[in-house]
Structures are given as structure tokens and as C-alpha cells.
Sequence to fold (301 residues):
Amino acid sequence: MPAAAPLQLISETLLQEKQITLYLKREDLLHSAISGNKWRKLKYNLIEAKKQQKNTLLTFGGAYSNHIAAVAAAGQEYNFKTIGFIRGEPHEPLNPTLQLAQNCGMQLHYLDRTTYRQKQDPAFQENLEIQYPDAYFLPEGGTNLLAVKGCTEVIADIPIQFNYICCAAGTGGTLAGIIASLNGHAQVLGFPALKGGEFLTNDVAAFIKQYNGQEYHNWQLQTNYHFGGYAKVKPGLIAFMQAFKATHHISLEPVYTGKMLYGIYDLIQQDFFKPGSTIVAIHTGGLQGLAGFAQRLGIVF
Ligand SMILES: *Cc1c(COP(=O)(O)O)cnc(C)c1O
Fold:
């Protein structure tokens, strides 16, 4: 069962100076293993998989994927077999993400990068469906319409008035759910984790359109905080995350939430937000990924 994801007030001199109220919505506390937005995205998919009497969850992801870790943990908790198709070559020993997935019982298969890119091709999918007739398929990153539906619940239980919601974006599914549930209320800022994140404008709009047929104008992307690209880091980002942890005792990870909060602080410094504004930033979780980063970069977060 998921726990609560409370709002936490962030106190800091900069915020006082600029008269900004900042809360973190601690979605990272929602579930110990199925973290943050990945729990939101899986919820209705798990219900649907049971309804279809599937006994297996099958999905795709990179070797450090939060989605892979979440699907593996969800399978263990809700009695599904799990199959993960992993991008790239196998490496021994397994990295912390894949070790966790395997410990949860996930069967790991590796696809070379060329084959991995074909994973959404109809012929490829059909082949897999024949091979795994009992499997419920989840796309890379977990975003489909049921995932968007789950993400509408991220902001359903926020008990305060706010002017801005801020959220990191990979596929944009979480952002789409948040925007749809706000239904035109407040402003939403999305922080793409990928370089060239402008492409998400169309993707997010399309998810929303499919979900509830609406088109909204109360949101925008902040595309300047990718730090060189997906899962790329720079010393300034690491220093920011370490300082944030030291001050607030809240861990961030460098792929999504670290970049988003760095961006929010930068925008506050630039007076992007009107004095008196209240911002709710979503901590989408993903902290399982820290161990892999620590190992690769020799950094303590
Ligand atoms: C996957 C993930 C995201 C991105 O979610 P999308 O719905 O793909 O945009 C954001 N934050 C964290 C921590 C994630 O693991």
C-alpha cells in the first residue's frame, strides 16, 4: 500500500529575500521500492493487467532506469512475473539498479542499441506478443494513458493554494497528468531532463489531448537545465544537490529532481516568479538511481 506524500515547506534565506514560498511534494516517500511518479504511472496499469488476467509485466529501459526498478518491485509486491528488456550489453557484476531488479525476480534480457531502437515497431511488438502471450506490455518510461491517469493524482491531495507546480520531465507523462488534473488552474513548469527538450511540447499536448480531449495554455517547458543531456552531470549540479541535502536533509538525484530544483532556484534568482508566489515542486523520487551514480562517478551524494 502506498504511504502519504506530504508537502514539505523549504526554508531558505533566498526564498525569504524573494518572498517566495516553496514546498516540495514528497512523492519519493509514497512507496519504499516503487518510487514516486513510477508508482503513480503503474497504479492503473497494474489494475488493468489483473483485469486482463496477465501474469507477467514486460517492459524496456536503460541499465539505470527507475522504471525498470519500479516494475521489478511492483511485480514482486503484486505477484506478477517481470521481464525487462535492457538497452545495451550485459555487464558483470550487475549495476545496483539491475541487481535490485534481479533480486525482485525480474528476468533480464539485453538488446543491442540498434535492436532496442526498434522496440516500438509493430513487427517487433507482434513477435514479442507471440512469444509472451501472458505478458502485459509497458512502454519504456512507463507512459501510456493509464499512466497519465495515475499522475493526475499527484496533485489531487495538495491542501494549500499555490501559483506554480514544477515537475521534471522525461517522457512528459507525469507532466501531462498534472496539467490535465489542474484543468487550467495555476501555472505548470516542466523541466526536461533531456537536451533539446522542446520536443516534449508536442508530446505532452498529445498525451493530454488523448486523455481528456483538452488543450491548455497554463504550462511551459524550461529547457535550459539539462546540464548537457540525459543523465549528464556537471560539478555545479552536484554541488547544488549536496548543499540542498546538507541544508534540508532531502536527497535529490541528478537525472531529474536535482536538475529541476537547480532550475527553480535559478529562476527564483532571476526574479522569474512574482514576489508572494507559492511554488509546489514535485519530488518524483528515483533515488534508487543514486547508488549507480555514486559507483560510476565516485561521488557521495
Ligand atoms: C521517470 C522519472 C521522471 C520523468 O517522468 P515522465 O513521466 O517520463 O516525464 C521524473 N522524475 C523521476 C525521479 C523519474 O524517475
The chain has a mean pLDDT of 96. The first strand starts at residue 7 and ends at 10. The two ends are 28 Å apart (CA to CA). Residues 36-38, 66, 141, 143, 168-175, 256-257, 284-286 surround pyridoxal-5'-phosphate (CB under 6 Å).
